[in-house]
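B., you asked whether I could sanity-check this one before it goes into the benchmark set. Here's the sequence:
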Amino acid sequence: MATFLYRLGRLAFRRRHFVALIWVALLTLAGVGAASAPPAGNSSFSIPGTEAQKAFDLLEQRFPGMSADGATARVVFKAPVDEKMTGKLNKAAVEKTVRELRHGAEVVSVADPYAGHAVSRDGSIAYASVKYKVSGMELKDSSRDALKQAAQDARNAGLTVEVGGDALTAAPETGSSEVIGIGIAAVVLVITFGSLLAAGLPLLTAIIGVGIGVSAITALASTLDLGSTTSTLATMIGLAVGIDYALFIVSRYRAELAEGREREEAAGRAVGTAGSAVVFAGLTVVIALVGLSVVDIPMLTKMGVAAAGTVAIAVLIALTMIPALLGYAGRKVKPAGEKSKLLGGGRPAKKPGRPNMGSRWASFVVRRPVAVLLLGVIGLGAAAVPAASLELGLPDDGSQPTSTTQRRAYDLLSEGFGAGFNGPLMVVVDGKDSGHPQKAFAEVGKEIRGLKDVVAVTPATPNKAGDTAIITVVPKSKPSSKSTEDLVHAIRDKGADIEAKTDAKLLVTGSTAMNIDVSQRLNDALLPYLALVVGLAFLLLIVVFRSVLVPLKAALGFLLSVLAALGAVVAVFQWGWLAGLMNVQQTGPVMSMMPIFMVGVVFGLAMDYEVFLVTRMREAYVHGEKPSQAVVTGFRHGARVVTAAAVIMIAVFSGFIGSSESMVKMIGFGLAIAVFFDAFVVRMAIVPAVLALLGRRAWWLPKWLDRVLPNVDVEGEGLRTSSAEGKEDERELVRV
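And here's what the prediction gave me:
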């Protein structure tokens, strides 16, 4: 592989005009496609095969035109102090609002609070339910504007009015912190390279790669039903890996220049060596992201595949566009150690024998491996303690900031009708095979009323055929609580008895039940997914390192960093530690997709550092150095760059903590803290300590396995051999 990539790097360096033209053309093509594509819809949390999804599908058949998965809104009214919603003027204002809402082009129905008994017992609060034909993200702006205007008209009449539900769903906003993250990345690159031009190359190529990836996602969003969160996460991951991959190749290029090689040769060798590590690091990230498809949640699968595509583009750009741009830069990119005139006065490189910070740190770890190992493991173990209290769930309006109208509507409904009113359960009774459907409907209502944690059960609403009915159940507890989850399971457990008595089938659905099913599917899939991703990456790393213990150590270190990161997420988002600093206005359960998504992304990124750092160590070991000295050599060449890469990733991920979307905020924080733990504790401390303790055993590989495995030559040994042969040929020509 190293030889092929070496040739590719030299070709891109020589044919830089052609390479640059191709990438600019691809960016333009993707941009045009994105600009002309219809807007994306909202990827739902549908899960094929779950009870909640089966109930939705049944409703579509038996209640045509009902739009079971359409957007909903609850317009909540509160009367002024010492007044009632039943007062003449207040009632007139509400009825006027209901009439305005019914004129909406996408509105299916609007429930009058006074006709539907939707007035609180004390008469201070009432609500009107609005049902739409399409999902929240598919609603036209005119429908949202009409909803907001109707609410404002009621406010003008003297009422307090708030709007809840998914009808006001909008694309998440990341705010200025994302730009700050990129700015920090730029500063780190300038410090690392000592040159504005060299620092600008990784940023430029990463932005181009993300531009192509996100534009392609936008262009295909409507066709493939990709939600807005998909492009946000692709941006997050694409920026991080795009900058890092380019950073490693530019760093190796400068190191090759420092050894006296010509620029084209240095570009070829940089792509042949560091590029090999980029390919395998990118493969681990792609495996982790594409592996999300085993969870069998369409939304998560699409997010993973889209992000994986952006990572693949980042790898290709690093291998081709970076050497092309280095060709354009010429002598403006200095050898390693030299500074530009602007930033360092053009001072020359330091003496090659002088140890840098990375080699001094590695020497310290090699001398005291046991102490460093124990300190690192105990520290991560302490950070992981809160993970034992992990509670999983999916966000509802109760997790929104208190400044939003959705959250205020949630609080008003809880005040007037109880917390469970924000997450009613929809029980679908299929009586098609029953001889007495009406009797079956009544029996279901009776059974549910006898269950614990039930506040209200509405009479059955049958369809026109009279063979299927909907019963609404209002829990006592809030939607995301354990009590509501237990109630859903209790109702479903009654299904077998109901079917035995009446031949009718009972299904529980609604947004609350769907969220519970999503969480359950994610929990069930976590271990199989972990086994698949870690297993495939383990095999890949055996090929890269030609060792059994090094990949095993890499996987165990990853598990430590993920558990510690989950502990930090629980402490902030569930317990509320530093919640003010993170602008977390509402604590609660951790999103159920967080653990599995963190496992997927962090594993790929953790293997990046493993590959980049340890391949340098193996390169030194293969070329004759002792194991302990190889560790120091690996850190001398790789520690500074890996540190810069980690700081950049942390900065980019931290930029998404400012998002208005709780899911993006939590994932940004989780990935940032996981990268911190993995890079600075696992890879910088635990890895060299373990390798120092193992010595030569770290690179042990059974002979039979050594014969079977392909030799991918990540260390670039083939380049050294070909170089030596080339020099011998030159000497022969001179003699002749």
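One thing to flag: The first helix runs from residue 2 to 14. Otherwise nothing jumped out at me.
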